[in-house]
Structures are given as structure tokens and as C-alpha cells.
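Need C-alpha cells for this chain, all 365 residues.
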Amino acid sequence: MNATQSLHALGQSLWLDQITRDLLNNGTLARYIRDLSVTGLTSNPTIFDKAISDSHSYDDAIRNLALAGESGEALFFNLALEDLGQAADMFRPVHEATDGIDGWVSLEVSPLIANDTAATVGSAGQLHARMRRPNVLIKIPGTQAGISAIEQVIFAGIPVNVTLLFSSEQYVAAAEAYMRGLERRVAAGLDARVGSVASIFVSRWDVAVKDRVPAELRNRLGIAIAMQTYQAYRALLAGARWQKLAAAGARPQRVLWASTGTKDKAARDVLYVEALAAPDTVNTMPEQTLLAFADHGRVQGVLSETAGDGAAVLADFSRRGIDTAALAAQLQREGAEAFATSWRDLMSSIAAKSAQTVSRAAQQR
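Here are the C-alpha cells for all 365 residues:
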């Protein structure tokens, strides 16, 4: 049993934080599912920007869509829906075998509407309807506007991946929005089973403070924040409010560890994966991290459900002037801005490729 299989046996789902057309078509994703216990997949604007900009695999599809009159976001979503539809079909057996707990893929709404609740709700509904598959999560950022949208989207029965969460407080806000949506469904006599995960970004914390703390505290803040969030997650599931929903058939909104690739080249490349092993959670990791963990990762223990080392580490950072509440808000803003930048770059890349392929087609006539 390799390390990824051991982690899966522990009860943690391993999702790939990457998608490309080549990955789907050359058998690589199928191999990861078969050999490395990968049971889901996530995407975001940065991932698609890199996939489309750095490859010719999409050129024919872009040309055909451009010649059909598609452009901009409409053209992109056609590409993304095709890729993620194929991935969703590959994970469908997992989804069915786990009765809807696992086997999900994620598609994000445009990051340009992160602060527009109505637009987010509308886009989530449209994308979900177009996917026509039961195992697709619509990614919605955990911004203030996004939190308002999540309740409405869950009430509508649309599965949600809440993205860009950076703290236990932000997680709790997302979890409460999820529960409000479910409570409204129960009150209306609707099915309480609506899938959801809450994505906590980990490594970006350590990047943000690496020049502000001594060497002994580097690469420790993200894990401490994750531990604090995991404790909040477990406390919420043990609470009377959730237990009432569970009795009505609701499934937990699992915590998902995102941004788990190690950014510090001096640190262990599977640092975050090893530290965040925990049952009933998800770890979504880039391909490089997945392969590294399969090669030399170790499942050494399980994340604690009670305050301990994480609280002590957070106290150390506080004594050194790190305001984690303010930094969490900053990281969320910066994350939303980074996705918006990637989205604009993606639209520019699609526009350039569209112009090139259409021009080429015209010359060949």
C-alpha cells in the first residue's frame, strides 16, 4: 500500500487540484484514480489559465467555437464544461459507490462577480444546469457576498464548494450559510442531502509571513490555522443544530485542505499533506505534490480534534505581532484579486488564440 492509499484508508479523500485536456485524454487521470486513490478533482481560474495558455490541446476547440461565434466567457465555459464533464464521468463510479459523499469535480463561477450576490446565484444555477451531472460542485468564494449566495444556492439544491477560506472564523461563516440553506430546505419539505465542501487555503499563510518571523516559526502558521479550523469543524458536527439536520438526512460539509503544495523550497515537499491527515476531510493537491506524496510521503498520525500545539503556535505568532484575523481578511482579498487577474489573463489568451485560429482558417480557404 503506497502513501496515497494509506491516506485514503484513513478516511481522507485525495482530490487532484489540476485539470488539462491532456491529463484527461492520455490516461493520466485514469491512472491516478486507479493507482493513487484519487477520488475527485478541483479547478480554478489560475489552473485553467495555465492549461489553455501553455498548451495547444485546446486550439481546435477554440477555433471551432470562435468560428461558431463564441467568445470570451461563453467560449471558456464551453471548454471548461467539456473538460469537467469528462472528469465528472470518470469519477461517477466513486460518487455512486460512496452514495454521493465523494467523487466530485468543481467548477468556479467567474471571479469578477465575487462581490455580487445576485450574479453569483444566477451563474451557479446556470452552470449547474448546463453540467447535467450529479457530482459537480459549483465553487463560490467565501466573501461577504459569496456567503449570502451560498445559502440561496444550497436552498436551490445546488452542490457548492466554498473557496477562498483562510480561517476558522471564515469557515464557520460558510458552514452556517450551508446550514441555513439546508434548514430552509427541510422546512420546505425538500431533500436535505446537498453536497458541499469548505476549502481552507493553507500554504498562503506561510508565504505571507515568511519574512516577518524567525526560522523556527516558518511553515507553521498555515498548519496551526488548519488545526484550529478542524477543531471548529468537529465541534460544529457535534452540536445540536447539526445533529438535527443530520437526523433529517443532511450530509456534513467536509473541510477541504487547499493550497497544500509546499512553496518553501527549503521545506519538505509533502509538509502540508503529512501534517493535515484527518478522517472525513479532503486534501486537494497539485499533481507534483500528489506524485511526491505517493513516492515518499508518510501517514504519521491524525490531526487533533482538540486545542493543543496549534493554539500554542498561534499564540507565538500573536506575540510577534501577527494579527491572524486581519491577515485572513487580507489573504481572502488577495486571493480573490489573484483569481480575477488569472481570469482576465485567460480571457486575453482565449481572444488571442481565437483570432489566430480564425485567421488561419480564413487563409486556408
